[in-house]
Design a protein that fits this description.
alpha/beta, Spore Coat Polysaccharide Biosynthesis Protein SpsA, Chain A, 7-stranded mixed β-sheet, 35% helix
């Protein structure tokens, strides 16, 4: 694969506005969504748009998103889906829609406040400075950190999960399970999102694996991951089981044939192990 470049800009990128669409799946995030949206729209990124993908949340998140879109018709849009169908499928629908609507970059971001909006200009700046196909907001490169509220067992589980996945797939990424990631739109367009195996959180693993195995350039920059602001985690036992099984499914699928493709290039063995970037100052 192409080697990633190091570097982390301090703030908003200079030059003409870049069309960045933040794809934000929601399910029962009515309390947290307004504040997260407000912080995003206040960033010094005039080309930034927010696409909320709501899975018919019973707490009224869809209506909250519609109110945001009514107040900011040029910057906020809502994609309503008919029911809860998994984070992965919500992202697949939202990312495809973002590309179809003319985005230059597509940003995956949680709606619960765990991904601080202040890091978005750094992700965009890094993408523009390095030309990377994918910039990952990483908790595990030097300078990154987890929420202070996380107990020890949760920290250990998160680190172990990343090491486990990398031991199987050998992507070289420090934070392959990260959900804060900026993609170049042509790369998203080349992904056959309808063929993804993952309905849930392991979608993050599957997409990054596809990028690495297909030779795309990847940069990881440090972020400070925060505890969700309201509500409860949706990380169920079934979701964890899917994440545990997926690396082996991807590995086996990539040996003779099959699996997710990027353009016409099927997933195979990685060409070489990517490097992690240096940490934040």
């Amino acid at each position: 694969m192409a080697a990633p470049h190091a570097g982390e800009p301090d703030g908003a990128p200079d030059g003409p506005a870049v069309a960045v669409t933040v794809v934000m799946p929601t399910y029962n995030e009515a309390e947290s969504l307004p504040a997260v949206a407000r912080e995003l729209l206040a960033l010094p990124l005039p080309g930034l748009r927010l696409l909320v993908v709501d899975d018919a949340s019973p707490d009224g998140t869809g209506a909250v998103a519609d109110e945001l879109a009514a107040r900011h018709p040029e910057r906020v849009a809502v994609l309503h889906r008919t029911g809860k169908d998994g984070l992965g499928r919500a992202y697949a629908a939202g990312m495809a829609a973002a590309v179809a609507r003319g985005a230059d970059y597509v940003l995956q971001m949680d709606a619960d406040g765990s991904h601080p909006a202040r890091h978005v200009p750094q992700l965009v700046g890094s993408a523009l400075a390095t030309g990377a196909d994918l910039v990952v907001g990483s908790r595990y490169v030097p300078g990154g950190r987890l929420a202070a509220e996380w107990p020890t067992h949760r920290r250990l589980l998160s680190r172990w999960a990343n090491r486990y996945v990398d031991a199987v797939l050998r992507t070289g990424l420090r934070d392959i399970t990260a959900g804060f990631a900026l993609w170049r739109a042509p790369v998203v367009a080349a992904l056959d999102l309808e063929r993804t195996r993952s309905a849930g959180y392991s979608f993050q693993i599957e997409l990054k694996h596809a990028a690495v195995r297909s030779g795309r350039s990847v940069v990881e920059i440090p972020i400070h991951f925060e505890e969700r602001r309201q509500g409860i985690s949706k990380m169920s036992a079934a979701v964890q089981l899917e994440a545990a099984m997926l690396p082996w499914q991807l590995l086996l699928a990539g040996l003779p044939r099959g699996g997710l493709t990027l353009g016409r290039l099927a997933l195979g063995r990685p060409r070489r192990r990517p490097r992690a970037t240096r940490g934040a100052r």
